[in-house]
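Quick illustration, no need to memorize.
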Amino acid sequence: MKFTAAIATGVLLMTNAASAAPRQAVEHYGKPALNGQALPFSDAVRVGDVLYLSGQLGIGADGKLPDGIEAQTKQALENIGAILKRTGRGYEDVFHCTAMLSDMANWAAMNKVYVTYFPEGKRPARSAFGANGLALGALIELECQAYAGPK
């Protein structure tokens, strides 16, 4: 009887400890807008040690897409850099990117700009694929994840 009571007490204590454990925090950064209209997502979300950046188009401060894949790639990477900076991170913290291209024929031209933001030997892992239409008629959308470090 004493043994059963001890087990029941132990299980109860473990259950209470598990339910009292702090929940992993999720932090949201930025409230993006386009031409004064709020967009339905965050610029970035941190979960633990990882910062997930929303996909970035090459939209400039004027709310417009520049002409050409190289200009849009540069602006998308500048937008990513601005988000990283606001969260206390930099390009060196990026460990993975996904490039979505409206036309895979632009892959080489996109790479020409992309490599200037990530030094040789320290480039993030990356995936790229062709998409049948990107938001706002963009030629590229870049989505990245970065190491955010311990809290």
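Residues 25-147 form a domain with the 60s Ribosomal Protein L30; Chain: A; fold (CATH 3.30.1330.40).
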